TrEMBL record:
InterPro entries: Ribosomal_uL5 (IPR002132), Ribosomal_uL5_bac-type (IPR020930), Ribosomal_uL5_C (IPR031309), Ribosomal_uL5_dom_sf (IPR022803), Ribosomal_uL5_N (IPR031310). This is Large ribosomal subunit protein uL5. It holds the Pfam family Ribosomal_L5. Residues 26-82 form the Large ribosomal subunit protein uL5 N-terminal domain.
Length: 182
């Protein structure tokens, strides 16, 4: 299945299902996935500059899009952080790359997690969902032999849903394996 099929599935199966479930009068009311943001906080990078480069390369390999460093906004002496110092990396995926990543996450990466029983079903109040992943090695693009450090990441699904209920229904239709179905 390719990203084209995921988008086609959204248009042909998910939209009518959500339209029926929430009694929308227009197709434009149906929530859609706007973007997926993958973020890695690397506080450890204050001591070692190579950590950021490695993280950028890994995240670029996982998503197929160039990752950018996130910079600190102010000095924090207790953490040895200076203003504009790289302290993490992130990627924002939209359109085809977003659907491609979503499919690989659901079909390949999540099932590779040890003792996987599903993901939490807590949204943020505006219909968006953030999934925390503890190990980047669940993605097949990462060569385990070359990994120096195991690092986690947050994957945020930004939807156009007005409520958590609509956002949950949309992500469930896409195939995100939630633990306790509402």
């Amino acid at each position: 299945m390719s990203s084209v099929n995921v988008k086609k599935d959204y248009l042909e199966r998910i939209v009518p299902a959500l339209e029926k479930e929430f009694n929308y009068t227009s197709v434009m009311q149906v929530p859609r996935l706007k973007k997926i943001v993958i973020n890695q906080g690397l506080g450890i990078a204050t001591g070692d500059k190579k950590v950021i480069e490695t993280a950028i390369n890994e995240l670029t390999a996982i998503t197929g899009q160039k990752a950018v460093p996130t910079l600190s906004k102010k000095d924090i002496s207790n953490f040895k952080v200076r203003k504009k110092m790289p302290i993490g990396v992130r990627v924002t995926l939209r359109r085809e790359k977003m659907y491609e990543f979503l499919e690989r996450l659901i079909r390949i990466a999540l099932p590779r997690i040890r003792d996987f029983k599903g993901i939490e079903s807590k949204l943020d109040g505006q219909g968006n969902y953030t999934l925390g992943i503890t190990e980047q090695i669940i993605f097949p693009e990462i060569n385990i032999d070359t990994v120096q450090r195991i690092s986690g990441m947050n994957i945020t699904f930004v939807t156009s849903a007005k409520t958590d209920e609509e956002g949950y229904a949309l992500l469930k239709q896409f195939g995100l394996p939630f633990k306790n179905a509402k």
